[in-house]
Amino acid sequence: MKRKIVFATGNEGKMREIREILRDMDAEILSMKEAGIVVEIEENGTTFEENAAIKAQTVAAAAKEPGIIVLADDSGLEVDYLDKEPGIYSARYLGETTPYAVKNQNLIDRLEGVPDNKRTARFVCAIAAVLPDGQVVVTRGVIEGRIDYEEKGENGFGYDPIFYVPEYGVTTAQLSVEEKNRVSHRARALEAMKLELEKRFVSK
Q1: Out of 2, 13, 52, 159, which could bridge 128 as a Cys pair, Cβ 3.0 to 4.6 Å?
Q2: Residue 27 maps to which CATH number?
Q3: Is residue 129 part of a domain?
Q4: What span, in angstroms and rounded, lies between the C-alpha atoms of 109 and 119?
């Protein structure tokens, strides 16, 4: 029987990435909505890792099905010139319902006149898993880059159109889905989590 993994998100873009990255795991991967879990999550941690663990533990406590694995992520953008803003507040930056086109333009405006070498930034992702026995495992993935001068690309979401990766010469929104799912912060954190789960024989 396939093991069930519930991912604590309702974000469809994120779920597509997660399913693609974890496609070779012998598991059924469900969103909270698909698993019928409705719960308020209070993200009051001070790090990506703490918030990911809070999400995963809250959803695991609300899940009525025994034996499932709950995964949650907390991710965001750190801009060095802005003292690592927006950081853990990336999703809530300028308000949760504010379009990312507005958020992205705000960051570009705040970096006006700032040269490339001081526009350094990174995407950070922490993934937390709550295993069936209650054990919590956390992994982290990072991709380094800089803030571009305008939005470019259609393949990503969120801050992807302004996050330029010098190694590839494009923004993460200009990477193909396959490339992004290989090198993104979420891909790296999920790959590390996959290894952790396999080590514990829970992916079998």
Answers
A1: 52
A2: 3.90.950.10
A3: yes
A4: 12
Mean pLDDT of 181-203: 84
Residue 204 covered by a domain: no
Structural domain contains residue 128: yes
Q: Which long-range contacts (CB under 8 A, 24 or more apart) does 18-21 make?
A: 18/71, 18/186, 18/190, 20/177, 20/181, 21/181, 21/186, 21/187, 21/190, 21/191
Q: What's the total number of domains in the chain?
A: 1
Q: What's the half-sphere exposure (Cβ side, CA atoms, 13 Å) at 98?
A: 15
Residue 91 counted as domain residue: yes
- Which domain does 98 fall in, by range? 3-199
Matching residue, tokens 């950070």? 124
What's the rounded Cα separation, in Å, for the pair 152 and 164? 9
Over residues 107-159, the pLDDT tens digits come to 999 999 999 999 999 999 999 999 999 999 999 999 999 999 999 999 888 99
User: 128 vs 20, 69, 76, 138, 182, CA distance in Å?
Assistant: 18, 10, 15, 4, 20
Given a cut of 60, whether residue 88 has pLDDT beyond it is: yes
Question: One of 73, 74, 148, 160 is an active-site residue; which one?
Answer: 74
Q: How many residues does the chain have?
A: 204
Is residue 171 a contact partner of residue 148, using CB atoms and an 8 Å limit?
yes
DSSP lists the bridge partners of residue 76 as 124
Does the active-site annotation cover 73?
no
